[in-house]
Sequence to fold (448 residues):
Amino acid sequence: MRRAVLRLCTLSKGLLPPGRGLMQGSQNPENQRVFHIHEACSPIHVNHVRDKLREIVGASRNWRDHVKAMEERKLLQSFLAKSQEELPPRRMKDSYVEVLLPLGSQPELREKYLTVQNTIRFGRILEDLDSLGVLICYMHTKMHSAKMSPLSIVTALVDKIDMHKKSLSPEQDIKFSGHVSWVGKTSMEVKMQMFQLHGKEFCPVLEATFVMVARDSENKRSAFVNPLIPEGPEEEELFRQGELNKGRRVAFSSASLLKMAPSAEERMTIHEMFLNTLDPKTISFRSRVLPPNAVWMENSKLKSLEVCHPQERNIFNRIFGGFLMRKAYELGWATACNFGGSRPFVVAVDDIMFQKPVEVGSLLFLSSQVCYTQGNYMQVRVHSEVATLQDKEHTTTNVLHFTFMSEKEVPLVFPRTYGESMLYLDGQRHFNAMSAPATLRKDYLVEP
Fold:
């Protein structure tokens, strides 16, 4: 069977300018100078992307051989740089990768991506973005002196994924592109874009920013990566935006409600919500009633359990991050659908932190709940934790945040406890970090 196509290309000039939020209307990528194809590119099948990654790190395709393959990677430690200054600088175009997903021209591909409503499964897109982000970073850190890369590159954070106002049709070709946009000592920011064919041009569908980290060949400690040299004002702006993104993440983390008390305005919000739920028939703080068109937060929960089989492993024999995101997104989508009473639209994904790798054989527990609503919008938080068969202790691995919108106004969600009040405020913060939403359009539906 023919498969989707991946192209490793050279970017001619002009990279994607930074963007945020749900975008208005159709945009011409040529006018933005964000999508350039080198005609000499030789495409390879997209189902070979993970094969390409296995080749880069020397990973085995067979689970029974994974221990031997990881032992062989220990020999690559000598190729690791002792400082970043030892590594040659790279340009943004050196890491540019383009992927073609020909759903229109190769209809046999559609079933994997198809929903029953004849739209595209966004969870599958998350998997593709995660694989593409890793491959882009290996292009940036490519080492000609070694047959295999001594680096273990893993996803640390999905900073944001913003949807443009475009429908995702399973009958039109899709293109992904991306490149490294900022580099620290051991980390890399990757910007990726997705386009879909409409008529004779590819129009923007989404923009994504991932943060990847480099580890040594045994995936035990940090490793240095090649510095990045921006060329021209557009690339300098992208690099500056990467620095700002890092500062924003640090500030957001420092102000976390797990570390700092809510602001005076946030405290007032919670107190007013509490007063709105007091029973006017009694003079008691313990007697609580819901206002009209409202739901207690605890009643918005859905849960699921996954057994982590070897089939879902990544090139380092841990569970593939894209699989974890897909499962979390699908549960979050179901939560929004159940809560809002209609089919939800994904608007944005942000702040997905990979706190701990998930080992093969683990039990993956997912818990999803609506933690904030406003008009047609729902902020859904998915908490992921694992337990092994031998140890019943649960450990948090991921916390994922999704913004959905519904075709109709959704109920208000009210916290009952202090902990739920903190979840409400955290959801409000994530929702407010999104740019002003655009007018709801039914044809922009993206489903799990």
